[in-house]
Amino acid sequence: MNDSIWKKLPDPALLDFGVDRSGTGYRLEKMGDVVLIRPLPSTTARQQNPELWEEAHAFFRESRRGTGDWEFTAPPPDPWHIELPLHGGPLQLHVRPSPSGQVGIFLEQLPQWQWLSKITPKGSRVLSLFAHSGAATLALAQAGAEVVHVDSSRQSLQLARRNATASHLDAASIRWICEDAQRFVTRERARGNTYDGFVLDPPSWGHGPKGEAFSIDRHLASLLTDCAQLLSPTAQGPILLTAHSPGWHHQRLATALASALQAVSCKMLPISSGPLSCMDLDRRQLLLGGFARSSGIGDTSQ
User: Fold this and answer.
1) Nearby residues of 102 by Cβ (< 8 Å), 6 or more positions away
2) Is the distance from CB of 8 to CB of 15 less than 8 angstroms?
3) What is d(CA 156, CA 159) in angstroms, rounded to the nearest whole number?
């Protein structure tokens, strides 16, 4: 396949996914005119477009240790970034291949970032936890929010700040903090600080900078309750919870979020939920997680 045909394909995009002849699952993605093959162990579907796979520019080879190496047919672009359309204008995000097979961007989250960009009230104060490479933070800042961005990884924090600069948001009202999420929320409650909303995308498990352990099964419920306690009485959001963890489908996320919010609100808050997914060129849905969200406890329009 020649380069002119590659350039006609959507970018960024999930092109195809499925198992190969050995039964191993992969996803085929296009990011900034570079086509990537990455592991996808959860799929049992069949690959649909073999001619596309044969022309990939990068392949991640996983080792037995759970990490791996990237192989490129040519040096990747420098800088290597993609453009994502949001309500207030495009975001520019850097692609950063890592030894885990991740690239610093989760395309299935794009509809959530677009929602944040559209409904976040200007001047609101929002807490962004497990904030990773910063796309949710930047969507909030682009809408005019004051954002407190918290992540335990210094590498992720550095990438998020690079993304802010690339998206012309380095002068936005963002406070960058490298800390354990639960520890930070506990301290914010003790200080009496309040927020209009919160966004969090917790991992299945992880560790803070000082070795603090986090497990979504053991710790998410209490963390959500503490986040809800940080909301001001007139908070109008946004409130967004996403997860990619097995067993945490969107209905379970919605139930957990509703339980936390009901503890601080005298009314039943409308919560919407659904899958995090991408569609390939054959319009097949790849399910990669779930979301639950609300406009906030002070929203009188719902």
Assistant:
1) none
2) no
3) 5
- Residue found under tokens 């993605």: 29
Residue 301, pLDDT above cutoff 50 = no
Per DSSP, 163 falls in state: H
Phi-psi region of 146 (alpha: psi -120 to 50; beta: other; left: phi over 0): beta
Interacting residues of 39 by C-beta distance below 8 A, sequence separation 6+: 24, 25, 26, 27, 60, 62, 101
> Whole-angstrom Cα distance, residue 184 to residue 239?
18
The two three-digit tokens of residue 250, written as one number: 């969107």
Within 8 A by CB and 6+ apart from 20, the residues are 26, 47
User: For 86-109, what is each residue's pLDDT tens digit?
Assistant: 998 999 999 999 998 999 999 999
Under the banding of pLDDT at 50, 70 and 90, the label for residue 210 is confident
- Candidates 14, 9, 68, 63; CA nearest to 43 is 14
Sequence-distant (6+) residues with CB within 8 A of 78 are none
Q: Where are the alpha helices (DSSP H) in the chain?
A: 3-8, 50-53, 110-119, 135-142, 154-166, 181-191, 216-229, 250-262
The amino acid at 297? I
